[in-house]
Amino acid sequence: MKPLALLRVYLPSIAFRQAAQAQLDGFLPAATAAAVWLRTLEIQRELQRTRVRHSPGVNLLLRYMQWDYALYCALQEHGIAQQQAGGWIEQINWQIFARASALAFKLSRLRSSRLQTRIQWLLDALFSLVFTRPFRRSNLPSVAGVAFDVQVCPLASYLRDQGAPELAHFAACSLDYRMASDWGVTLQRTQTLAGGAAYCDFRFSMPPVQLIAREGARVDKTTAGQPEN
């Protein structure tokens, strides 16, 4: 995993251009791909004039949302269906963030060998360093996983203000499931702010082997020292 490749995450104009052009070149004729990218640049320049300012972490994410929306519009202007355009943006964003997600999971091994502890630590770190104000979440008790609700999401708000609330699913929400899968856990979510709900419900559950091992350890502790029948 090359460090310079990870640093590109902090340079949205470079990281997004590289990932987006690779995606476009793979699915569109060269002339169409070039025209789509030129129009993306035009839309993105217009969006920069009204960019909202928050914390550095949220500002970084919003810059990616800008690029996502610009490309989303450009693709549809060139005849690409909404669902297809969203799917391509999902793939582009995951290509950008997958390496950082994988590295973070490796580093979490320094925190603990227990998967649930690692996932909790990772999510707490993300909400301390990246998903900061105006993001707002409430942690919930969970014996067999990690659970919380998100009541405020500036990414969903931004795309809703642009008139494309459905894009949040592709640009951000869907990546949560990919991240969870790479971390070896399962994310269950029944509603989102982008979908019109009052909050997003995040429920991360551990794989069965983790639960079985935990129950086995609890039984061993309970029966230790007891005489056999």
Number of helices: 9
What's the gyration radius in Å?
21 Å
Strand residue content? 5-15%
N- to C-terminal distance: 55 Å
Low-confidence stretches: none
Shape: globular
Could you report the average pLDDT, rounded to the nearest whole number?
91
The portion of residues assigned to helices is 55-70%
List how many beta strands DSSP finds.
4
Sheet having the most strands: 4 strands, antiparallel
Structural notes for this entry:
This protein is of the alpha+beta class and 229 residues long. 62% of the residues lie in helices and 10% in strands. It is built from nine helices and four strands. It has helices at residues 3-7, 12-27, 30-48, 56-77, 82-107, 115-129, 154-161, 167-182, 208-223; strands at 136-140, 145-152, 186-188, 200-205. It has a four-stranded antiparallel sheet, with helices on one face. The termini are far apart. The mean pLDDT is 91.
Topology:
Layout: H1 3-7, H2 12-27, H3 30-48, H4 56-77, H5 82-107, H6 115-129, E1 136-140, E2 145-152, H7 154-161, H8 167-182, E3 186-188, E4 200-205, H9 208-223
Antiparallel strand pairs: 1-2, 2-4, 3-4
Helix pairs in contact: 2-3, 2-4, 2-5, 3-4, 4-5, 4-7, 5-8
